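Hey everyone, long-time lurker, first post.

I ran two proteins through the pipeline my lab uses and got sequence/structure pairs for each. Pasting them in order. The first:
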Amino acid sequence: MGADAYALAGVTDTLTEATAAEGIADYVEFRMDGADRPLAALGEYEEALPLVVSNRPEWAGGTAGESERLETLAAAAAVDAVEMVDVELRTIRECEWLRDELRGHDVELVVSHYDRRETPQKSELNRIISECNTYGDVVKLVVFAEERTDSLSLLQSFNAASERGVRVTGYALGDIGRHTRVIGVFYGASIAYAPVVSDERGPNDIDLRKLSNLLDWVASAR
């Protein structure tokens, strides 16, 4: 996949901010675990940008408790504006009813794997990508980079997967991994992610407008 094939997703837990992503992003990812009344917010959503929804538990970097987390995610999949549902590999592997429920809606399934402590070896990254791909339409990998070689391993895995026709995305956390949010698309990542509001996530995030400008600049310089 070439860099001209990527999509840009603005991430928020407040759907009223979606207007700030118009004209920049292709999608808005709604982090439901950060919203007080996520289903009500989805019901009131009237903006033009299609939605990716996620509902992360603590073990995947979110705040959602397990009680009704998956029921809420399944209910969100039925909303017309939702085009993608992001669910963790561990969850989709263990929860057959959720797989069936999500497949019953006209949504694409992003199957994600989060490792917020380290970057697995390249062979393990490739194995995770293959497993995610058996369940979903898009594979998302988020890892923590402790060394430059960690970022390199992630990018090489993206490149190899995209050459096999796998739609893959993600990035590396940490100072060393920050640049992967920008250059990942040039190694096959199909979606680039950035918070709609600059201080919404963490210190290693790049806000949506800045990321869009950086991507345009790198693409024009190639």
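...and the second, right after it:
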Amino acid sequence: MFERFTKGARAAVTGAVTHAERAGADSVTEEHLLLSLLDQKGGRSSFAVVALGLTDRRASMESAFAEARRRGGLTKADAEALAGIGIDVTEIVAKVEGAHGEGALAGDRRSRRWWSAHRPFTAGAKGILEKSLRVALGRGDRFIGEEHVLLALTACPGVVADVLADHGATYATVERALYGAGGEGQARAS
């Protein structure tokens, strides 16, 4: 599938690996893909992230990711579902951190792969890349661009999509920023 990626999409993927390395993460996540897209200049996705004001709110998004890691990676929907059955995630996080230290649910962010430079992609990150292919094909595009990766990040439920939506970047708003009003009505890839 990588052969179908444009230069910009390849740069987004390799940039995600760089972000994972800098963070000392064992694997490349959806968050790393988004951070890499936010770093890009001059591509279609960079136009959309600037138009939506995401580059100006990067610190806020990184803070939201840190808070989600602190909750053990639970999405808002997960926390709400647990609240619906009487489980208060905030209370559990406080108790775990009280016993084991702040950030205990975030897991060890330090790499255990000291012997290898290879960082695998998580199932979620792989799913984003697969979804970007479906988004591209759904739009009638032959190649996968970084804009397709950005759209896939908004379309796949999870922490990254939650954070993007909280910052005004939904599938519809990103699609409008990328393609204008004429971009709507295209079949949303499933």
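Reply from user beta_strand_b:
Welcome! Quick read of the second one: The chain has a mean pLDDT of 86. The longest helix spans residues 7-23.
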